[in-house]
Write a structure and sequence with these properties.
The chain is 45% helix and 18% strand. The protein is an alpha/beta fold and 304 residues long. A ten-stranded mixed sheet has the order 3-2-1-4-5-10-9-6-7-8, sandwiched between helices. The two termini are 28 Å apart.
Length: 304
């Protein structure tokens, strides 16, 4: 059994080299508000677009209130400034030899991203991520609201771009669509070393501790739960053709496991790939695992 999956490969060659197949260039949409996080997001989007020879779309959404205030005072100062800034950013990207198109929309950022991504059939949405003091606040960050507004893969960039991602951590459970997760990861991090991560807990361990069970019994219980966790993941691995790959099985709460793995890989060009939480109930039960990593983590996150 292989200890860990190897690097995933880009499908660029297969997309353009098969005879008789129409080549559709990938389309990448990056949200930009001219802030520091937005510039980092654009730098990562440029890197991904260059890898796939994709077309890059830069979107800036101007709030309706800003547009209304400008009209009320008889000038277009804010809108004009935004338009000029967007033109400048677009020109800088075009100077790097990439195909790029600017988009400026009046309205909320999440809805602008959703509608534009749909019109473009975007393969990927890229946004800058800001940490928040209250990660479980009812009103999330703009990046979170964008992720909630579209079903397309959303890359949330936190770290400065120095080189392509080298480590890819895909968090999975027994209900994961691993093939879909890997397809999205292939766009963002081709060539990265892949690790599959799963957190599990023994539901009876607390009771055994309270009953004064021996360390031997606790170890035996953990071993059994670990074995069951591995067995539950086998259909997921088999469906993705990875049944021979070993999963990183970590005992503990999902959020604590992610926190540990995130800190262990800090500064190592790591990307975490997570599935969107499937329901409100799951969000409440898990404590918002995705939201925690987005708000408080140190690594970039690809939400699929």
């Amino acid at each position: 059994m292989r200890p860990h999956p190897g690097p995933i490969e880009s499908d660029r060659a297969s997309r353009s080299g098969r005879r008789g197949v129409v080549d559709r260039r990938r389309s990448i949409l990056v949200g930009h508000d001219f802030s520091g996080p937005a510039h980092r997001a654009l730098a990562r989007a440029v890197d991904v677009a260059r890898t796939h020879e994709a077309k890059l779309h830069i979107l800036h959404a101007t709030p309706r209130v800003t547009h209304t205030v400008d009209r009320l005072f008889g000038n277009n100062r804010a809108v004009t400034h935004a338009r000029d800034s967007l033109a400048r950013v677009t020109a800088e990207v075009r100077a790097k030899g990439l195909s790029v198109r600017p988009h400026m929309i009046v309205g909320s950022v999440p809805q602008a991203v959703r509608s534009t991504a749909g019109e473009l059939h975007a393969d990927l949405v890229v946004v800058g991520a800001r940490g928040r003091v209250l990660p479980d606040a009812l009103v999330g960050s703009t990046a979170e609201r964008i992720a909630a507004a579209t079903e397309r893969p959303v890359l949330m960039v936190r770290r400065a771009v120095n080189r392509p991602y080298r480590h890819l951590v895909v968090a999975i459970d027994a209900a994961s669509d691993l093939r879909r997760l890997l397809e999205a990861a292939k766009i963002v991090a081709p060539g990265a070393q892949l690790s599959l991560l799963h957190a599990y807990e023994d539901p009876y361990e607390t009771g055994l501790l309270l009953d004064g069970s021996s360390h031997a019994n606790l170890r035996a219980g953990r071993t059994q739960v670990r074995r069951e966790a591995r067995a539950a993941l086998m259909p997921v691995l088999a469906k993705a053709g990875l049944e021979q790959y070993e999963v990183l099985l970590r005992n503990g709460n999902s959020r604590r496991v992610l926190e540990f793995e995130d800190r262990e890989r800090s500064g190592r060009d790591a990307l975490f790939v997570l599935e969107r939480e499937r329901s409100v109930v799951e969000h409440l039960m898990s404590g918002g695992v995705c939201r925690w990593l987005i708000a408080r983590g140190e690594s970039d996150v690809l939400l699929v």
